[in-house]
Amino acid sequence: MLLAVDIGTLLTLVVAIVVAYLVVLWLALAFYVVRDARRRTTSPGFTLFAMLLGFVPPFLGALIYFMVRPPLTMEQVRSLAIEEQVLLEPPVEGVPTRPCPTCGREIEQEFILCPYCRTQFARRCTGCDRSLRLGWGVCPYCATEVGAPALARTGR
Ligand SMILES: [Zn+2]
Ligand SMILES: [Zn+2]
Fold it and tell me: Looking at the CA of 141, which ligand is closest?
């Protein structure tokens, strides 16, 4: 019967598509696991372990990998370390500082905005490059007109 043959062919086709789809998904997942492992560790042992898990058992291995992988990528670890270092760093000696009017952290007097909370409270003179308060329309150091006072805070 012609119709039966057609349904058989159709079924084979559907199964083939599903299998191909699963294989592609499995390979993509395995490669993703290996790449992810490389971003999280420099240890070749762990990368090899991740590679094995990514391929066998299919899908389940990747799931196990996601449960045991290091929680942070090396990039995240590095930026966390830098952040910590910056927070611990004392203000540079000899530079006059003052507390930020918004968040209260010590910042250098010449700063035109707070690097911590991003509040802007001054701007640069276009002529002599010194910091001017936002309300000033003219530079008191070099008499350059700096335009209308920008009272709106541009922080955030
Ligand atoms: Zn601040
Ligand atoms: Zn000036």
Answer: 2
Q: Which ligand is nearest to the CA of 104?
A: 1
Q: What is the pTM of this model?
A: 0.49
- For ligand 2, the distance from its centroid to the CA atom of residue 113, given in whole angstroms, is 17
Q: Are residues 8 and 64 in the same domain?
A: yes
**CA distance linking residue 91 with residue 13, whole number of Å:** 70
For residue 1, what pLDDT band results from cuts at 50, 70 and 90?
Answer: low
Parent domain of 124: 94-156
For residue 152, report the distance from its CA to the centre of ligand 2, in Å.
21
Q: What is the pLDDT of residues 71-106, one digit of tens each?
A: 888 888 888 888 887 777 666 677 888 888 889 888
- Domain total for the chain? 2
Given the DSSP bridges, would you call strands 106-108 and 97-99 parallel, antiparallel or unpaired? antiparallel
20 found inside a domain: yes
Ligand nearest to the CA of 127: 2
On whether both 67 and 20 belong to a single domain, the answer is yes
Q: Pick the closest to residue 137 from 125, 119, 152, 154 (CA basis).
A: 125
